[in-house]
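User: I've been trying to design a sequence by hand for this structure and keep getting stuck. Would you show me what you'd pick, starting by listing the structure so we're on the same page?

Assistant: Good idea, let's start from the same input. This is the structure you sent:
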């Protein structure tokens, strides 16, 4: 998750785009998506240095 988040930010993804992508993944994958989606949001928060969701 960290490398994907880092790559997305380096390619110009905004905070909102990252959050929308994570939410779409969470909706499409059910229970496992909820677990990993929250971890992905936490990873993005570390990169941006603030609370996102």
């Amino acid at each position: 998750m960290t490398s994907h988040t880092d790559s997305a930010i380096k390619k110009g993804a905004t905070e909102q785009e990252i959050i929308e992508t994570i939410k779409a993944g969470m909706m499409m994958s059910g229970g496992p998506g909820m677990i990993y989606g929250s971890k992905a949001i936490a990873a993005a928060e570390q990169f941006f240095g603030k609370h996102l969701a």
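That's my pick for every position. To get oriented when you compare it with your attempt: The chain has two helices and no strands. The mean pLDDT is 88.
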